[in-house]
Design goal:
This protein is 46% helix and 14% strand. By secondary structure, it is an alpha+beta fold. The protein folds into 2 domains: 2-40 and 321-484, no CATH class; 51-295, no CATH class. Strands 4-5-6-1-7-8-9-13-12-11-10 form an 11-stranded mixed beta sheet, with helices on both faces. A two-stranded antiparallel ribbon has the order 2-3. Strand 10 and strand 11 (449-450) form a beta hairpin. It comes from Hyalangium rubrum.
C-alpha cells in the first residue's frame, strides 16, 4: 500500500503496444516497474495523527507482536536481511552485543562512559520513571557504541516516547514491546547511513508507507536528519552534546511525524510483508495517506506488498522498484533469441532488459529484437571496464579529492564523503577505459561511446539502483548497452 505512494512517481502507467508479438508479450509480463520521486516535486504533507489515535493503534498492534526476552536482538532480526552496510561487531559468549557501521577513515573519540551511563540513568528517572528505560544496559554495565545513537533517537522522540509507554501499559510485556519498537526504528533508520541507501523487503514497504503518510519531502528530511544525528552521536563527548543532537532531530521529527514513524515500524514488528500490508489499512490516517498517494501520482496503497526495494540518491530522489503484475508474471521463458528478462519497466515505456548476459536499455518505440545477438566490442568493453574498476583504491585520489572528502567527514557528513569518493572512482574508471579502449568513438554529451562500424551505443555507469534508474530516465529514447562496474 505504502509502496503505491512510492510508485507515485509514475503519473502514467507503462505503455503496452498492441502490436507486440508473443515473444514480446511474454517478456513484458516479466517486468519490474520503477518510479522515481524527487524532493521538492511532491505535494504531500505529513498526515496528522493525534495522541489518542496513536496510542489506540499501538495498543492494538501490541497484541500481534510475539514476546521476546531479547528486545535488541529481535529488533535486529526484523531487518537483518535488509542491511547492506559493513558492520564492526563486538561478540560476547557467542552473541553480538553491539554493532556499528564501519566508516572508512573514521576514528572513535574517547569518552567517559561511566559519566555517560550515570547521565543516561538520570534521564530515565526524569523521562521514563527510572531504571534502564530503553534497555541500553542489557549487554553490559555501561553505555557503548551504537547505544548513543539509540539514546539520541529516544531523546528526539521526546513526549512520543512517553505516549508509547502509556499506550503499552496493559500489554503482557510492555517494556519488551517498547524496547523492540525503539530499537527497530533506530535500525530501520540506520539503513540510510550508507553510500547507496537502499531498503528491501519489509523495510522497503515501511519506506513506501512513510512516503504515503508523510510525503516525499518529509521522508527526505527524516533521513538526512538521522544521518546528521548519527554523525553527531558518534562524535559526542558528553551527554549534553548528545542531548543537543537528539533535540535537533526532535525538531525535524515533530510529534505527528514521530508518531507515524513509530506506528508504521511497530506494524512491521514480528510480521511478514503480507501481514504488514494487512495491518496498514487499520492504522489512523490511512484514508488520508491513500488520497495523498494518489495525489502524488502513485498506485493504490493496497499495492505496497509488491514493493521490491527503495533506493535513495544523495541528489535528493527515491527510486521505487515494484514487481510487475501484468500478464502471468514470472521470468520469461527461453525463446529463439535466448532467455530474456525485463529488469525495469520505466514509467515512459522504456525498459532495461537482460539478454544474452548483457544489460540493455530499450526505448518505448524499439523492440528487444533490435538488440544484437552478438556484440564482441561491447563484451570487450565490459571486460576492460571490470578490470579497471578492480584496480581502484582510495590511494588513487588526488589531493583535491582527498581534501574534499576529509572536509566532509570532519563536518560529520559521511554520506557526502562516500558520494565524493564514489564520484572520484567513476572519473578514474572512465578516464582509464577511454585511454585503453580506442576502437570506439567517445562523446562528451549523450551516450558515452559509439562503435563506428556497427552504430551500437554504450554507456559506462556504476552498478547502483539509483544510478541505473537515472540513466534510464535521462536517455529514454536511446538504445544502448549498459556497461556497469
Amino acid at each position: 500500500m505504502a509502496l503505491a505512494l512510492l510508485t507515485a512517481c509514475a503519473s502514467t502507467t507503462p505503455r503496452v503496444s498492441a502490436n507486440l508479438d508473443s515473444y514480446e508479450r511474454e517478456l513484458d509480463a516479466a517486468h519490474y516497474s520503477l518510479s522515481e520521486f524527487t524532493v521538492g516535486d511532491g505535494e504531500g504533507a505529513p498526515v496528522e495523527v493525534g495522541r489518542e489515535d496513536f496510542q489506540k493503534a499501538l495498543a492494538e498492534l501490541a497484541r500481534s507482536v510475539p514476546f521476546s526476552a531479547h528486545s535488541m536482538e529481535s529488533a535486529r532480526q526484523l531487518f537483518a536481511q535488509e542491511h547492506e552496510v559493513e558492520f564492526l561487531a563486538q561478540v560476547k559468549e557467542g552473541q553480538v552485543v553491539w554493532a556499528v557501521p564501519l566508516e572508512p577513515g573514521s576514528t572513535a573519540r574517547p569518552r567517559d562512559w561511566g559519566s555517560m551511563t550515570r547521565n543516561y540513568l538520570q534521564w530515565c528517572d526524569q523521562e521514563q520513571g527510572g531504571g534502564d528505560c530503553i534497555g541500553l544496559l542489557e549487554d553490559g554495565p555501561t553505555l557503548r557504541g551504537d547505544d548513543l545513537r539509540t539514546l539520541g533517537l529516544a531523546i528526539a522522540l521526546g513526549s512520543v516516547l512517553r505516549e508509547m509507554k502509556s499506550a503499552l501499559v496493559e500489554a503482557a510485556n510492555p517494556r519488551a514491546l517498547l524496547l523492540s519498537a525503539v530499537w527497530s526504528v533506530g535500525l530501520y533508520l540506520l539503513m540510510w547511513v550508507v553510500p547507496e541507501p537502499l531498503t528491501k523487503g519489509v523495510a522497503a514497504m515501511v519506506t513506501a508507507a512513510l512516503m504515503a503518510w508523510l510525503g516525499v519531502d518529509t521522508v527526505w528530511r527524516l533521513m538526512t536528519g538521522w544521518v546528521d544525528l548519527v554523525g553527531q552521536a558518534d562524535s559526542a563527548e558528553s551527554f549534553a552534546e548528545l542531548g543537543q543532537a537528539g533535540g535537533r532531530y526532535g525538531k525535524v521529527l515533530g510529534e505527528h511525524v514521530a508518531r507515524v514513524l513509530v506506528m508504521v515500524v511497530a506494524a512491521a514488528l514480528g510480521g511478514t510483508a503480507a501481514r504488514l500490508a494487512e495491518k496498514l489499512p487499520r492504522l489512523p490516517g490511512y484514508s488520508q495517506a491513500a488520497v495523498q498517494a494518489e495525489t502524488q501520482g502513485s498506485m493504490p496503497l493496497s499495492m505496497v506488498v509488491e514493493v521490491e526495494s527503495v533506493a535513495a540518491s544523495p541528489q535528493g530522489s527515491f527510486s521505487v522498484l515494484m514487481r510487475g503484475r501484468r500478464g502471468s508474471g514470472g521470468a520469461a521463458s527461453s525463446g529463439a533469441r535466448g532467455e530474456a528478462v525485463t529488469l525495469i519497466h520505466h514509467q515512459g515505456g522504456n525498459r532495461q532488459v537482460m539478454i544474452h548476459g548483457q544489460r540493455w536499455h530499450v526505448p518505448a518505440n524499439r523492440s528487444v529484437k533490435d538488440i544484437p545477438r552478438h556484440d564482441p566490442v561491447g563484451d570487450e568493453l565490459q571486460a576492460v571496464t571490470t578490470r579497471v574498476a578492480e584496480t581502484w583504491s582510495p590511494a588513487r585520489l588526488n589531493q583535491a579529492e582527498r581534501d574534499a572528502i576529509r572536509d566532509a567527514r570532519s563536518q560529520g557528513k559521511h554520506w557526502l564523503a562516500h558520494l565524493l569518493e564514489r564520484e572520484a572512482r567513476g572519473r578514474y574508471v572512465h578516464a582509464q577505459v577511454v585511454d585503453q579502449f580506442k576502437q570506439v568513438r567517445w562523446n562528451r554529451v549523450g551516450v558515452d561511446a559509439i562503435d563506428p562500424r556497427t552504430g551500437y551505443k554504450y554507456e559506462l555507469l556504476t552498478r547502483s539502483s539509483s544510478n541505473l534508474a537515472r540513466h534510464g530516465r535521462r536517455m529514454a529514447e536511446e538504445l544502448f548497452r549498459m556497461v556497469s562496474f
